[in-house]
Predict the 3D structure of the following.
Amino acid sequence: MTEFRQELRISTAGLERGMFVSELDRPWLGSGFAFEGVMVETDDDLRRLQVMCKHVVVDIARGKSPSPQFVVFDDDDSLSAPAAPPPASHGPVRSILSRVFGNEVAAAEKAQETLEAGVRDVIDGLRTGGKLDAEKLRVGVDTMLDSITRNPMALPWVMEMRRKGDYVYQHGIACSIWAAAFGRHLGLERDDLRDLALGALLCDVGKVRMPDGLLSKPGPLDAEDLRLVRAHVEESRRILADTPGLSPVVHQVVDCHHERHDGSGYPHGLAGSAIPMYARIAGLVDSYDAMVSQRPYAASRSPHEAVMELYQTRDRLFQAELVEQFIRTCGVYPTGTLVELTDGSVGVVMSVNTLKRLRPSVMLLLGADKSPLAEFRLIDLAEVTTDADGEPLNVRGGLPAGAYGIDRAALFLD
């Protein structure tokens, strides 16, 4: 397997000897270092970089990894100051969507609506004592797979833009979509994709029978709460056992998606290859989506932070090869992520560049002064490398949902 290349932007306070610096926050010219990067070998190298730079980019595939506390995900400025929604109409936005996704956005929206309608019917039925209607879910899953087969990134983008509401509904839908996109990237056949997507959709179905208020309880969960939450796996198994027509793969995914590579998961404490492959995939996307979701008992992270967390846990919680391939699927800055560029402008990631994962296509929403742009603008960072002043233009970092008052759902799809 090709070695995974990973670059992280860090504060120079976290620089150490043995790190490879691939980018400065100033031009290389006049820095005294070679343009192709520098291995920090001496205390003198360290002091020079710390004097001339506030931040640098380090390549952890070529040198020592930094402590996570020094990784910079966003700027130090406040991100919560509300900004008026950019006054762009759906016309210009739809034009940009057509340039990026072709004709697939409308079909992706319909696929999401079909999948969500099926999930709501099924979960509402379970909450009132009914049985799981797997056929309703298969219709939505097949519609979703049709969209992802045509364009693997349109539906994940739509899903991220519409992310709001009941966590139980939205989490299952997001896991199913990301699992399908990931499985397609891995080359799975249609029947296998359907089983994987259906299993991911049902991973947490047992939570519909958790005690009232448990999942909406604010603040950290205590030991008894955690025991009850973990019991959702057994409840999910009971629901599936009472549902005819589900494949063994779906049962495996639901049963084992909380197992972890190092054996620290539950309910069986399986490790490594003992965990069924599709359960490993589902466990990874389940963890990713939980981190980016807003939950009463845990703050959400930006998609970029969640990706970095997965990477930090490779070969501990998750198989390294799967983590690396998932990041190839979704990008270091996943589709739908709000990002700030080095010139101060803010936008949403539209598509991932598979060869230059740190340089996605971005639809700009706010200017450098954080004021709304009169018209949205698409910029491909794989092609545009400098800003208006001729300075290097890069992604400064990922932003959490709602940064600068941006409501993605209201802006694009409502």
Remarks:
- The longest strand covers residues 372-380.
- The longest helix spans residues 104-127.
